[in-house]
Amino acid sequence: MPRRRISPSTLALGGACVLAALLGGCKAKIGDACRVSTNCSIRGDRVCDLSHRIDGAGNPTPSGSGECTVESCGFDDCPKEAECVKVYGSDFLTVACDPRREDKATSRPGMCDLDTCIDEDTAGPAQPDCLEDGDECVYAPLDACAPNEVCLPEGLCADEITARTSCRRRCKQDDDCRTGYECVRTGARGIYAAPDPDHPGKVTEVKICVPKSE
Q: Nearest Cα to 143, choosing from 95, 191, 107?
């Protein structure tokens, strides 16, 4: 069988790509399809996340491709096409909590008398958790979440130990994502933008590509 000849231009292009890869070029973008981490980067600075594998039509299958990402990122650590997000395990998002009162006392204007509060904001029924008499309703802290959990802004307890951060493809609409993924806003489903260490407690919303809900 005659050998297939490779044109000089193809060899030159391949050589250029190898050289560029060694210098940091020819690197897959965050969110691109992959089967092994070297599909993402030969330098080892990106990994192939195979936790969700899809075929070319976007259908989940064990033989499909994962996506390129950077694990254990921090705020503003990701490449320009991506955002660093913190994801809490969905298996743990089952216990409701009040993010305003979890592990902290709060006060609101109202009438407090004999261990009951009438909240001026709601004019609702008296609350049996007033801490002292006065012109403010001082509510006792709540403790719905376990010691290893945090109360997310969406009102669910989440396991902090199993949470992971990673870079995910930034998007504006579904068309910005590969087939089988959709563009969603963080702040729900246990997916949040990585916290800014210079502004602790501030919740920032971004839009990223995530696998479509089955």
A: 95
Domain definitions of the chain by residue range: 26-88+163-211, 106-139
What b/e sequence results for 4-13 when a residue is b if at least 16 CB atoms lie within 10 Å of its CB, and e otherwise?
A: eeeeeeeeee
Residue 2, judged by CB atoms within 10 A of its CB (0-12, 13-18, 19+), counts as: exposed
Sequential pLDDT tens for the chain (214 residues): 444 454 444 444 344 444 444 444 567 999 999 999 999 999 999 999 999 999 999 999 999 999 999 999 998 899 999 999 999 987 778 899 999 889 887 776 655 554 555 555 554 544 545 555 556 667 778 899 999 999 999 999 999 998 999 999 999 999 999 999 999 999 988 999 998 888 877 778 999 999 987 6
CA distance 164 to 170: 18
From 136, 163, 164, select the one nearest 149 (Cα to Cα): 163
d(CA 102, CA 32): 39
* Polymer length of the chain: 214
DSSP, res 170: B
CA distance 149 to 25: 41
Nearest to 63 by CA among 50, 45, 47, 44: 50
Q: Report whether 208 contacts 183 (CB < 8 A).
A: yes
Please state whether 123 falls in left (phi above 0), alpha (psi between -120 and 50) or beta.
Answer: left
